[in-house]
Amino acid sequence: MKKAEYLSEGLGELEIYNAVVNGEDEVVREAVRTALAKGIPAGQILSDALIPAIMEVGRLFETHEYYVPEIVISAEAMQAGMAILRPLLCDAGERSTGRIALGSVEGDMHDIGKNLLTMMLESIGFHVTDLGVDVSPRRFVQAVVDGAQVIGMSAMLPTTMHNMKVVIDAMKAEGIRERVKVIVGGALVTQEFADRIGADGYAPDASAAVRKVRDLLSKAPSAHSVKEVADFKILARFAEA
Question: 3-state class of 182 per DSSP?
């Protein structure tokens, strides 16, 4: 497995990195606790070890060296580390990188890609509300009312794609369309379709989805500061069945 040779092995950062890449959650927990005991700040562990590791996992996925099973165990390993760091990051004043609500539109029951994307976004600091599958326009609207800055909609079927526009029209009818950014994805979704229905963004895959979310959050009316999200490599396709 590729190692990040620039990391400090003595401080435990390299061990954390390799454990995430290899999906070793217990090793991650122990190594994170050891690094903290040595006085390494939580933010440094996140930025120097966990994030580079998940970027490497993203690269391995994109080059077809990793597949969904490896993605899942690496994501769980990173979450194991984040569970320890998150309270410390909050105490240090670190904020969520943004509030996102994801869901498969009404009539669409596909959720594997959405679930993986939700897990990965949460592990790197996003506040994600997973609305689930077969989500009605009213529930998407309520997510905006509840404070979502970005709505992500997935549709895998030609018979359900049109419900994306139904959701956007419902937001307009409620007078809240300008309060939120909308990103769409799915097997048959295209940039042309996204433009036609009035979405703010389209992502053909998960890495593109994260870059697009970062861009949309930077333009959201009440967006939090988004730090280094452009470098994050998310590991699951945005709407993979």
Answer: strand
Strand pairing partners for 127?
99
The answer to whether residues 110 and 211 belong to one domain is yes
pLDDT tens digits, one per residue of 93-123: 555 678 999 999 999 998 766 776 676 677 6
Tell me the C-alpha distance between 200 and 146, whole Å.
20
CA distance 87 to 81: 11
> With contact defined as beta carbons under 8 Å apart, do 116 and 102 qualify?
no
Q: Which of 232, 218, 9, 187 is nearest to 98 (CA)?
A: 218
- pLDDT value, residue 54: 82
Q: 175-184: b or e for each residue (b if 16 or more CB lie within 10 Å)?
A: eebebbbbbb
121 lies in a domain? yes
| Same domain as 199, residue 111 | yes
Please say if the pLDDT value at position 130 is more than 60.
yes
pTM of the model: 0.65
Q: Number of folded domains in the chain? A: 2
Quote the CA–CA distance of 73 and 83 in Å, as a whole number: 15
Q: Strand runs (DSSP E) across 22-113, as ranges?
A: 99-105
Domain that holds residue 40: 13-91
